[in-house]
From TrEMBL:
This is mannosyl-glycoprotein endo-beta-N-acetylglucosaminidase. Gene3D superfamilies: Galactose-binding domain-like, Glycosidases. GO terms for molecular function: mannosyl-glycoprotein endo-beta-N-acetylglucosaminidase activity. It holds the Pfam family Ig_ENGASE1_C. InterPro entries: ENGase, ENGase_C, TIM_ENGase. The keyword Hydrolase applies. The keyword S-adenosyl-L-methionine does not apply. One of its GO terms (cellular component) is cytosol. The lineage of its organism: Eukaryota, Viridiplantae, Streptophyta, Embryophyta, Tracheophyta. Keywords: Cytoplasm, Glycosidase, Hydrolase.
Amino acid sequence: MSPVALLAGIKAHHRGPFSAVEDLLDSAMTQTNGTDSAATAADPPPPFDPLAPAVPISYPLKTLEELESRAYFKSFHFPFNQAGVKLPSGGGGAEALPQRPRVLVCHDMAGGYTDDRFVQGGTNADAYAIWHWYLIDVFVYFSHNLVTLPPPCWTNTAHTHGVKVLGTFIMEWGEGDKQADKLLMTKTSAQMYAERLAELAVALGFDGWLLNMEVELYPGQIPILEEFVSHLTQTMHSSLPGSLVIWYDSVTIEGQLNWQNQLNDRNKPFFDRCDGIFVNYSWEDNYPKQSGEVAGDRKFDVYMGIDVFGRGTYGDGRWTTNVALDVIKKGDVSAALFAPGWVYETNQPPDFQTAQNRWWGLVEKSWGTVQSYPKVLPFYSNFDQPFLEYPGDSTTQPIQVSVNFKEASYSGGANATFRGTLADNAEFTARLFLGELLLGSSPLHVTYSVKSSGNSLLGLALATSTTTNKKKTVFLAASGNALLTMNQFSSQFTEVIMPHRVTKLEAEPGWVMQESSIEMHGHILKEIRAVCYRSKPKTPHAVAYAPSPAPSEYYAVLGDIKITTSGENTNFPPSTAWTVDGQFVSWTSGPKGSKNLSVKITWQLKEGNVDLFSKYNIYVNKLMSVSSVYQREMLDGSQEYLGVAAAKSFYVSDLEVASSISSLKFIIQVCSPDGTCQKLEESPFFLLQVQGM
């Protein structure tokens, strides 16, 4: 599997030929339809033209006219912004939210649409990201534009982890007053705009809206506003079961912009017409409990706001965000965390990853986890989203555990890295995942990739229980001396299993694939932990092994993990089962007889369930001038990685093509949810002759 270049929850590392884009709201792509339109420093950039072929980006709608006219659906960028990952069915996901206190996270990072606007990935390996999805129920993408549409990287990543995603509809300041007058002109106009918002959410694959009406209204407009909220909620529910519309504590039923900081009679009519309320931040000790009492049996639909920047918020946010969380949890209502990007925006020391883990560690300690995975099979992770525990500020742990986004990974995503010192007879364990997976009668097949140094070994511990609370722990050991492994671990685990297959990967030096199987019918997989330990040297039978008295260096890396019941890889449709096409083909001249190509590539299964696949790696073969395609590939068979797509579209921008190349073969490598990718030689492709050849 090739490196993933999406930006949410995984650090983007991008090797494709994409151009940088200036501020999307005030400028256009510097390369449009393959024509180099780079201007001098003195020339202002041309206005952004959403109809022109260009590097795909995410962008908001700024006017009601754009919303009413459905102009977004005519944009060149629309198909690239469609999320490819649906919420999992069963155990939450596409169903109603669980009846317990929940956590809503409102993005609001540096105004929105920063690195994440690049749909096909960007060049900033230090881009903002969230990888603590197991602490989140609902994610809101926020900006101060009228209609904020979540970039698909956020929706895809959140959905992968069972988290619902909302866009934002906001009216504020002087312009908001004018927009509100138009929105609320009649009940018919309000219903029309509500239907347009619902249509956008369904088409782009996200799950609803946060409504923020921070404007003063006339009392006569309130019934129309109530109709807008009701109609949007009803339309969303009928169009997308499990969707949400949440009201922000802003304008009151009298039409006054007067934040109540609680649920009460002045904002409850809006709450009654939608799925919840996001309460403003300046609440007091007893407000969570009182708000829950006002909500009655809908108390978990009350989300008490916390501004992580600490602007007039209870508990002062920042590194004491947990103070407010503790009070909210005691009040038995839900929490809304606004702007957790504070950690990133304010450059909290010592570095973003460490500070991010520390801050979310406060959330977990106060609130606990709210998501669990694996919940369904197949399960696959390349460790871009593990459940790693933050160890606190203590440095006494012998092994430091981290997620490395920057070094080359085995299968895209990241590496779970274990580094430190460990004595010969010692072990160290670290949580990887908390699950809720009911196991059937079929054997469980577990495969994971490891790279280690010296005699450092790494295995996996599985903790299970039954409906009668019968617990079992299984150790999937690394390859090595079975007798010594059994002697070391048999007293600690219910069962110790040696791998039945170990494969050293020639294409990935240093990486080893370990495969184990186990039967646990009727058990529920609750936790997966990494176990760090050391191999012991082989000694003559007459000589007792004396462990080293001093700890020595330990280093191991987990690349990915896959859990299935079949033990077999996915059967992919043959390349002939796909329709692949190229559109908006544009050639420009380059230096030394070369050319630059821009082209939109699309693909679609002719028949079958395309929703089985939500990731596609894109490669190009640059083929020489020989009589047949296959001979050309033999002469120049190297594939150049261009990027990754979640939608079934990919835009190649200004690909340099040398004068010796006669044709280009674009390969769409299909990847399945179990981490398996189709062989390149069997993947669908699009063949394009070089202009003039």
